[in-house]
Amino acid sequence: SEQARSSPWETNASSIISELFQGRVVSVVRCLGCQRSSRTQEVVYEVSVPIPEANELAGAGPMAESQHVQQSLKAPSWTGVLGLAGKVKGWFVDRGVEVTDCLHKYCAPEYLTGKDKYACEHCKRKCDGEKRIALKDLPEVLCIHIKRFRYDAGWFNGTKNSKVVKFPVGKALDVSAFLDDATSQPVEYQLIGLIEHIGSMGGGHYISYCRHKRKPHEWYEFDDQQVTPVTLAQVERAEPYVLLYQRQPSKGARHDRQVFKNDHRRVQSSIGTYLSSQAPGSPSAQRGDLAADEIRVHGAALRGLYKSPPAELDIVFVSKHWYVRLTTMSQPGPVDNFEYLCPHRLLGSSSVEVAAEPFIPISRTMYQALVQKYGGGPTLSSLEICPKCHAHMRAYNDRRQAEYELVTKYDTKDTGEGKNWYLIDALWVHKWKRYVRAENVTDIRDMCAPGPMTSDRLFDKEDPGKIRSNLRLRIDYIGVNARVWWLFMHIHGGGPSLCREELDIYSKEASPEIELRLKELCGPRNAEFARRISRQYVDDCQGDLTLYQQVYGGAAAEVNGNADHGKSNVDGKTVAPAELEDYDISQVDRDVAMESNPNSADVSPAS
After folding, report:
1. Region 305-332: what's the mean pLDDT?
2. Which of 18, 143, 208, 284 could form a disulfide with 22 if both were Cys (CB 3.0 to 4.6 A apart)?
3. How far is residue 403's CA from residue 436's CA, in Å, rounded to a whole number?
4. Rounded distance, CA 315 to CA 554, Å?
5. Which of 16-25, 137-146, 281-290 has the lowest mean pLDDT?
6. Mean pLDDT on 132-149
7. Cβ contacts of residue 257 below 8 Å, gap of 6+?
8. Rounded CA gap, 55 and 64, in Å?
9. In angstroms, what CA-CA distances link 174 with 34, 51, 133, 380?
10. Which residues contact 358 (CB under 8 A, 6 or more apart)?
């Protein structure tokens, strides 16, 4: 059942680089004494292959001793029969090697003898061994790096190997012979681009060749700012340094693409017919089709339908990201909708428009067939916005805007209306600036509040009551005036306070100036505003007014430098508001943008 498959939904975070280039190789070491093998897998983003010598292609040397490699070595030898005549021919006419020869060399056994003997765990001693590498999990784009440069005696004595390496341009590259798991079916890649290095070790220039996506017989040369059409013959004459091959989809994958597209068109037509039937007098109903402006996701009727699809349509939703994977990649992977869901298993978006943007509708039958083949889930039968996350985002955006305006109003480059400096960890300020400068969030996953202010990083780990040595202004800490500090305490909490008479963490300590708390946050008239921007309402209760009233009784908690707001029990769960000394930051971010004036403590969002 789908619930039984719940664990695979939660996939690890990935990037476009890992989706396209990440593969896996396996290294197998066999002890020649006990014949036992050990296997180690490694994630790779490119395969770095050597250029074989002539004798390795001619059937001599270690390569010939491996039956596996002998059977898979299909490329003909370019040296012909061994002997002086073959070698002399190679000196004057470089017929080159095939890229498959380089892959064979990469996968050829390496014998571990002498000082390189293998430490066998079973034999409990060093033994002669055999090591080989094979491709385990193939990437969508296979990046083959050809080792043309050698540094035998340091950088200044390096050499470049300019031997011709031939590669298929108009035909597929079959890598099935290099797989760890043998297969009788070809595993084909098509060349889509290459990088060429022109020059020597002393200097050179890189250019690239790329194939047109929609016109595969057209190639282009990219040389800095110049883009020039080239022929296949010109591409084949290039001296490749890096080759990029895209895996070709199987017949089944190509069939799935077409079936998916046909199903999507039928669903769109059904939706159009349904919307037309709901407005009999509309022009679309008279024409018998759906007007273009109505079928767009921003149409009010379509938005309502996506939010609560009628049962007769029997549609579900898949992400456009997965659709792109299906139509462009050989293996699209599981139909993963989990990454789009909020913690409440709904869509944490600010509007139906935002919620609908990443998805397309298909039939439930089509979806079930896809999950059966590729795995995935959960089923998205509607694009319903999560009311809890919507309230949280609204409270978060309102607070961020109010905070921006108040900091802009009260921030100064001196102590302002007070006499003392309030020192804050520069790392926290860096996070705060990123948060306050951001646009209004439209998805719950985009929220980036800095969290409570913390000073733990500024104290000695061995003696928490002692300030660390050699802390620097603007690098490790900055200073703000009393008004800004009290605002930060109300909105973000944290502590303990570091109040000093001078803008120097090692200067004389001072007491917080309570009388300089913001007037906008004090008194009954401002209670509603104080509540709306408080950390208790926005962070602890996530914009839930009912929960806030249960926990805090409907009034914003007073903020002071030594406050402990305690804990409350709601629905059987302990709710702990931010306490002053319960936070820690374990890493240091020294990239803090501050004014060049050494006495400046400007934390203005524009600074």
Report:
1. 90
2. 18
3. 8
4. 43
5. 281-290
6. 92
7. 249, 326, 327
8. 10
9. 34, 19, 17, 39
10. 319, 320, 321, 340
The CA distance from 392 to 441, in Å, is 10
Phi, psi of 204 (to 5 degrees): 180, -165
Whole-number percent of the chain with pLDDT over 70: 78
Least-confidence region, from 22-36, 51-65, 99-113, 176-190: 51-65
Strand partners, 23: 44
Contact 223, 195 (CB under 8 A): no
Mean pLDDT, residues 366-392: 92
Question: In the chain, how long is the greatest CA-to-CA distance?
Answer: 101
> Is 427 within 8 Å of 588 (Cβ atoms)?
yes
Pairwise pLDDT comparison (67 vs 24), residue with the higher score: 24
For 318-355, letters b (16+ CB in 10 Å) and e give bbeebbebbbebbebbbbbbbebbbeeebbbbbebeeb
DSSP sequence for 380-441 = B-S-PBPHHHHHHHHHHHHHHHHHHHHHHHH--SS-TTSS-EEEEEHHHHHHHHHHHHSPPP
Q: Residue count of the chain, please give it.
A: 607
- Find, among 74, 96, 49, the residue nearest to 245 by Cα: 49
460 and 466 Cβ atoms separated by less than 8 Å: yes
Which residue bears the tokens 């500090």?
485
Closest CA to 106 of 80, 133, 124: 133
pLDDT digits (tens, 9 = 90+) for 270-279: 988 888 887 6
The answer to whether the beta carbons of residues 6 and 377 sit under 8 Å apart is yes
Residue 411 is predicted with a pLDDT of 94
Mean pLDDT of 146-168: 81
d(CA 384, CA 346): 6
Strand spans (E) along 45-168: 47-49, 97-98, 110-112, 118-120, 125-127, 129-137, 141-146, 149-150, 159-160, 165-166
Pairing of strands 188-200, 203-211: antiparallel
Q: What is the pLDDT of residue 186?
A: 87
Residue 409 CA: distances (Å) to CA of 395, 412, 483: 21, 9, 10
Residue type, 477: Y
Phi, psi of 200 (to 5 degrees): -130, -170
CB 120 within 8 A of CB 129: yes
pLDDT digits (tens, 9 = 90+) for 447-505: 999 999 988 899 998 888 899 999 999 999 999 999 999 999 999 998 788 999 999 99
| Reported confidence tier of residue 393, pLDDT bands at 50, 70, 90 | very high
> In Å, how far are 153, 253, 323 from 328, measured between CA atoms?
45, 10, 9
